[in-house]
Amino acid sequence: MLDRILRLLASYRVLDCSLNPGQERLYGISRVSKYLVSNEEGVSLASFLDLFLQSVFLESWPKMKDAIMKGGIPFNMVHGMRMFEYAAANSKFNEVYNNALFNSTTIVMKKTLESYKGFEQFKQLVDVGGGFGITLSVITSKYPHLKAINFDLPHVINDAPSYPGVEHLSGDMFQSIPKGDAIILKSILHCWDDNNCLRLLKNCYKAIPEDGKVIVMNGVLPLEPETSDSARDISLLHVYLMIRGDGATERTKEEYVALATGSGFKGINFVCCVCNFYIMEFFK
């Protein structure tokens, strides 16, 4: 049975396969599966894959037709509440969700700091929707002069570990945001519709000084469908977000510019792309 599974994985290049002198198949790690094995820092993308395969999401897919034909949110139809409410009420799922973000964020932010230098001139950085605070932990390890504030919902902050130089604060980002020289929004805007994004960005605008900036990290949809690996990945996530509802959607560059200008920002700079995340800067 195991060999059948390994053979299938090898056919999709998830594993490498070779024959030994006795014509036995030997399987090993491939370029794909190396990301599912813990690296030298003990993190991998296996937990992120585990999140996507959670029954709470798989049970929602059959409701997609009803959502398209009649309206509604597949996740809510099955579970009777929004995903973030479910996470607050279900400690096991909340642990899986936060563990996936911890692992994937560690990998992405390590690579981001190799290319993006936009944190070094600021004194106080606020991560809105920062989960356990791993984004700020990685950033402050390179820029220890920063005072870092990790801001998220109470049920997230309650389980957040301590990191040197990182202060955890709980609250509602749609009400108000702690002040800082710069604010980072990683994988946040794609969780919400335009109206909620505008509410959030206007709060960010109020929380930064005239020379401050909001740093947005999100995938960006091409204006027309493309066949590249990166375009397929972001299009897949674009469909997956339909399950969660709340207007969750990926956006094009043009749509991000519209959000920035609609919330009062005068400039937007697409700095670089790392691990399929665009780093965008919104200026007053």
TrEMBL record:
GO process terms (BP): methylation
Zinc found in the keyword field: no
S-adenosyl-L-methionine keyword on record: yes
GO molecular function, one term: O-methyltransferase activity
Record-annotated O-methyltransferase C-terminal domain positions: 61-266
Taxonomy, superkingdom: Eukaryota
SUPFAM superfamilies tied to this protein: S-adenosyl-L-methionine-dependent methyltransferases, Winged helix' DNA-binding domain
Keywords noted in UniProt: Methyltransferase, S-adenosyl-L-methionine, Transferase
InterPro entries linked to this entry: COMT-like, COMT_C, SAM-dependent_MTases_sf, WH-like_DNA-bd_sf, WH_DNA-bd_sf
Pfam families in the cross-refs: Methyltransf_2
Name assigned to this protein: O-methyltransferase C-terminal domain-containing protein
Organism the protein comes from: Acer yangbiense
Organismal lineage: Eukaryota, Viridiplantae, Streptophyta, Embryophyta, Tracheophyta
